[in-house]
Amino acid sequence: MNQTTSKKVVQLSHGGGGKEMNHLIKDLFFKAFDNPILRSEEDSAVLHFNGDVAFTTDSFTVAPLFFSGGDIGKLSIAGTVNDLAMMAAEPQYLSCSFIIEEGFEITKLKTIVESMAKELKQSGARIVCGDTKVVPRGCADGLFINTTGVGRILRKGISVKSVAEDDVIIVSRDIGRHGASILMAREGLTLDSDLTSDCATLWPIVEQLIAANIEIHAMRDATRGGLSAVLNEWAVASDVEINVKEEAIPVCDEVRGLCELYGFEPFDLANEGTFILAVPRESADATLEIMKRFCHCEQAAIIGEVNQNRKGKVILNTPWGSTRYLDLPQGELLPRIC
């Protein structure tokens, strides 16, 4: 074991550009994310593309860093890869920057980095460049991660502006798991529950849909703001009404119970491995069959449809025969959810 990794915590010298930083990068980050482009150690990665590419970036400040079903490392990879996947872009290259607080445990950092490396294998993407900064105690809450991703677009035309009349709305699985899991971890709830975050890479599912030549008008992973935010963004951007049935939206008992306890709605809670699709009605059955048969999306369901009545609005049909607007969430239900 070398001098750096034998230390129990991150030191300011790990961000100083000298021997300690070199050991940290080579023995931890390079080892976990090893590939020829990263190993070249140039100031900029040299990439090769053909055709249109998608480009996205995100920063992750989730608290706590470890939660049931994932950690900040897994979340940072899945979150960025999913943003590419929602544009039908094959994830290829990622950058990764770490802001580490002095005193952060090396063993925890190693666990997080290994989690990232494992999640990268779900999509085949590679981390090809990055940056590491160490800040004094009290200047950060343990660890922040920024990831940027680029990928090759395999299917053009998928957009928030492409939702069309007579489309159906499909959700890939039960909603609200990530938000509920973070809430349980943050509040120290010890309920008798196996609830885990849905944090996962979505590219394998999207890849199957593209390979099957499914016509997709829009896709969006329902992260902050949950299902409500996605549907409202689509309704406004495409100038349509989206009509959804509350009974058709899959919600597990644990999430429903937590929402009742805290006065939340599951439609507003964040997800990190659940996405929404808008597809033509004639493609709906084929879409569901592929998702359930090949992509482990057993709970995938049609939850609504698109029409031209009250444009820019999302209408929720309740089990009691009434209707109401499903509005954009207001305020911040759970800060630092991702």
Per DSSP, the total helix count is: 9
Helix percent reads 25-40%
Mean pLDDT: 93
Structural class: alpha+beta
Quaternary structure state of the chains depicted: single chain
Instruction: Give the neighbour order of strands across the main sheet.
Output: 8-10-7-11-9-12-13
Radius of gyration: 21 Å
Number of strands: 13
What is the strand content?
15-25%
Largest sheet: 7 strands, mixed
Question: How would you describe the overall organization of this protein?
Answer:
This protein has helices spanning 19-32, 36-39, 72-85, 106-120, 177-187, 203-211, 226-238, 253-262, 284-294; strands at 53-60, 66-67, 70-71, 89-101, 126-135, 143-153, 167-171, 218-221, 241-245, 275-280, 301-307, 314-317, 323-325. By secondary structure, it is of the alpha+beta class. The strands form three sheets. A seven-stranded mixed β-sheet has the order 8-10-7-11-9-12-13, sandwiched between helices. A hairpin with a 5-residue loop joins strand 12 and strand 13. Helix 3 packs parallel to helix 4 (106-120). It is globular. The two termini are 33 Å apart. The model is unreliable at 1-5 (pLDDT under 50).
Task: Give a short summary of the structure.
By secondary structure, the protein is of the alpha+beta class. The protein contains 9 helices and 13 strands. Strand 2 and strand 3 form a beta hairpin.
Question: Helices and strands in order, then pairings?
Answer:
Elements: H1 19-32, H2 36-39, E1 53-60, E2 66-67, E3 70-71, H3 72-85, E4 89-101, H4 106-120, E5 126-135, E6 143-153, E7 167-171, H5 177-187, H6 203-211, E8 218-221, H7 226-238, E9 241-245, H8 253-262, E10 275-280, H9 284-294, E11 301-307, E12 314-317, E13 323-325
